[in-house]
């Protein structure tokens, strides 16, 4: 009760609560009390609706119901009067009471009845009353649901007592639940459309893909979700959370025991349409099952199937498969490989240069020389791969920083571009060379005359930060070296970049390009069946182009080049037992050497082509901001776009986004929906049995500071400090410097830091013992 003379009892009417994302509460509260009266409540709610946070099934009931809370009820009475009525209306006594207390009992704080009437008639005051009344109801609902074990949206979905919850809370929770379910449905439809686009009509297209391509499998929808989306949750039972629609339509009375509720649902058009769709899908699944039992699982086998087998297929499915077969045959008559004249020779005869670091020299301190270096880098075996041996270097020799291979016609990665846009230079630093040495080691074992029958050639997954040159530099360099392997032992090299396929025939010294519709598996299987050996470079350059399960074929080695996106390679790697190679980002000296090479060969844009040292200084500043990402640091326009995008991503971070940054300091590999990928790089780490693992770290000091400050603002202190400890780099000292007050009041932090403390040796003339903190990177 507010105590207003003219007010009656609040009757729990359903009021639309304002919805302001939690991170914006203070800013919104200030604007509403500092003369922001130009917008009506309805207009403001529409604006706030557009800024509503992204909910998930893991969102808590408390977060959802308190989404629209503001702190304006904590405003002091005199501040409220001053902002709404002017200084002349402030009160001498009780002016510091907060508005929440005043609303509950206004007569206790203001005796002037005229002033009270004026206050009561203020729209802002009436809104505050409603908010406080609603807040009380919502808090009671949160408490009630908590006691009944309903703390998350997922638990609310299966909660059978929805009708016992106050209307405003029930409506808000159902609104968010419907929003999440519809978003999941929308994403499923997008994936289905994408899957349909990827179906290539060839003789090896799967029957199941052809019959179901482009449609969402409604049988994947759970009964409770269907009842929520179509019937507001009627008939929901916690025991039905995993019940499929197929099971439900087989026996509806088993899952909805209330005959009245079931009868009401079954009379609707939504029920009839869904039942029809589910039964159609069940029919198609039966077609797939029966054909599979007869050994018919692709178009080729459908074309050869006996008539009695085809006769057992329903007319619609039969027509669909016959149409797909005709399409595949039409394409077979038009798809031919395109021979690229002169391109094999261009790659095979690429010219060499190298860049050495000359201490004390002018400019960048780098010297460009023609030809191969006299001495390249040396590597030692570590586990099943290699690491560079930094201790090996000729006495007095200038250290090698970079090798450059130049192809007149460019490299396959850029062959899709025009002549003026092709990339001619392949940069080889010690990390790129390391990858080749590992592949070379695999090949020596594979091609050895002593290898045992059934020996499986090396299968590798190369994982690295997006934009560092994996596709262009690693792919091109591996191709060059593979072409120079013994032609009798390794006569073929297949290079696949997204939907582009190149086949290099070393015997004929030709390269053929195949279109997106061609099936590279069929082509390579044909070579393998004839006993031809080869190697496959598979670059997942486009989303959705994961390596096919049929590769590599027998007698072929293979490496997959990918960003740290598990959707690109995980299922393939698990199936064939591929081992990881983690490539580090190029270091500053590598990039400086590239700058020297580009300056020497006139590869810089006109606005960049000044003194070599000045250009390197500019590139160095870009690296400090966005990290050593070659895709962006050499071009001002691309750099600016990347920088603005990263800063915007960090500044727009909200509380729910912080969970994505829990990967920092871990080996977790994420999918392509992960929002932190622009500010995270992967670094090679050795795990058990010296296997290579990707360690997630912040990509640059600038973005690192930006991210940690934002995380500190949003996260609980303990969680933030422990996250910074996991990062294991110089951000530890920055966190201690900025947040030292609450840092050492945090039990979790102290417990984590104690093992890192050790006593320093006491100086000869010093009577005190000092403590030092070990570097977090040790």
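Q: What amino acid sequence fits the structure above?
A:
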């Amino acid at each position: 009760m507010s105590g207003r003379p003219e007010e009656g009892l609040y009757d729990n009417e359903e009021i639309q609560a304002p919805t302001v994302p939690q991170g914006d509460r203070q800013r919104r509260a200030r604007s509403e009390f500092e003369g922001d009266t130009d917008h009506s409540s309805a207009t403001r709610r529409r604006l706030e609706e557009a800024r509503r946070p992204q909910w998930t099934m893991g969102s808590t009931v408390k977060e959802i119901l308190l989404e629209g809370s503001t702190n304006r009820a904590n405003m002091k009475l005199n501040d409220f009067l001053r902002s709404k009525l002017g200084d002349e209306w402030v009160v001498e006594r009780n002016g510091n009471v907060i508005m929440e207390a005043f609303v509950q009992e206004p007569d206790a704080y203001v005796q002037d009845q005229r002033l009270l009437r004026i206050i009561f008639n203020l729209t802002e005051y009436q809104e505050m009353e409603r908010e406080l009344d609603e807040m009380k109801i919502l808090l009671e609902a949160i408490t009630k649901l908590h006691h009944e074990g309903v703390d998350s949206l997922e638990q609310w979905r299966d909660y059978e007592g929805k009708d016992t919850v106050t209307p405003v809370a029930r409506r808000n929770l159902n609104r968010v639940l419907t929003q999440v379910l519809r978003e999941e449905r929308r994403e499923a439809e997008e994936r289905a459309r994408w899957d349909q686009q990827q179906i290539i009509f060839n003789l090896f297209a799967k029957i199941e893909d052809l019959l179901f391509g482009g449609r969402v499998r409604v049988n994947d929808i759970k009964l409770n979700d269907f009842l929520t989306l179509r019937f507001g949750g009627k008939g929901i039972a916690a025991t039905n959370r995993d019940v499929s629609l197929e099971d439900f339509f087989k026996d509806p009375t088993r899952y909805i025991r209330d005959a009245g509720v079931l009868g009401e649902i079954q009379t609707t058009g939504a029920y009839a349409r869904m039942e029809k769709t589910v039964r159609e899908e069940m029919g198609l699944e039966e077609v797939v099952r029966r054909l599979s039992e007869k050994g018919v699982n692709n178009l080729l086998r459908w074309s050869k199937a006996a008539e009695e087998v085809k006769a057992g297929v329903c007319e619609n499915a039969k027509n669909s498969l016959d149409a797909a077969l005709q399409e595949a045959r039409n394409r077979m008559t038009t798809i031919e490989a395109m021979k690229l004249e002169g391109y094999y020779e261009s790659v095979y005869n690429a010219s060499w240069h190298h860049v050495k670091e000359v201490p004390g020299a002018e400019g960048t301190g780098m010297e460009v020389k023609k030809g191969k270096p006299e001495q390249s880098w040396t590597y030692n075996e570590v586990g099943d791969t290699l690491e560079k041996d930094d201790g090996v270097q000729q006495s007095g020799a200038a250290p090698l920083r970079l090798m450059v291979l130049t192809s007149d016609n460019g490299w396959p990665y850029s062959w899709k571009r025009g002549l003026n846009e092709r990339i001619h230079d392949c940069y080889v630093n010690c990390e790129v060379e390391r990858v080749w040495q590992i592949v070379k080691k695999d090949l020596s074992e594979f091609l050895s005359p002593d290898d045992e029958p059934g020996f499986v050639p090396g299968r590798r997954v190369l994982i690295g930060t997006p934009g560092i040159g994996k596709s262009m530099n690693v792919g091109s360099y591996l191709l060059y070296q593979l072409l120079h392997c013994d032609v009798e032992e390794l006569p073929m090299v297949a290079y696949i970049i997204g939907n582009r396929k190149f086949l290099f025939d070393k015997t004929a010294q030709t390269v053929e390009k195949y279109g997106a519709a061609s099936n590279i598996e069929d082509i390579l299987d044909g070579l393998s069946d004839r006993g031809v050996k080869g190697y496959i470079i598979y670059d997942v350059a486009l989303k959705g182009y994961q390596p096919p399960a049929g590769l590599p074929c027998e007698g072929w080695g293979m490496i997959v080049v990918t960003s740290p996106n598990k959707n690109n390679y995980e299922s393939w790697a698990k199936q064939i037992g591929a081992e990881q190679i983690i490539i580090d980002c190029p270091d500053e000296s590598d990039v400086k050497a590239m700058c020297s090479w580009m300056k020497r060969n006139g590869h810089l844009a006109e606005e960049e082509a000044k003194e070599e040292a000045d250009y390197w200084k500019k590139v160095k500043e870009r690296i400090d901001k966005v990290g050593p990402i070659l895709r962006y640091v050499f071009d001002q326009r691309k750099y600016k776009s990347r920088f603005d995008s990263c800063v915007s991503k960090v500044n727009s971070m909200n509380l729910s986004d912080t969970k994505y940054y829990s990967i920092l300091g871990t080996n977790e590999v994420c999918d392509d929906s992960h929002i932190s990928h622009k500010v995270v790089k992967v670094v090679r780490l050795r795990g058990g049995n010296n296997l290579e693992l990707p360690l997630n770290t912040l990509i640059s000091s600038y973005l690192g500071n930006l991210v940690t400050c934002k995380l500190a603002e949003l996260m609980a202190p303990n969680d933030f400090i422990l996250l910074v400890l996991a990062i294991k780099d110089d951000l530890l000292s920055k966190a201690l410097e900025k947040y030292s007050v609450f840092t050492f009041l945090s039990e979790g932090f102290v417990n984590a830091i104690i093992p890192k403390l050790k006593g320093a040796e006491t100086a000869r003339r010093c009577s005190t013992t000092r403590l030092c903190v070990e570097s977090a990177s040790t």
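Q: And what stands out in the fold?
A: The first strand starts at residue 338 and ends at 339.
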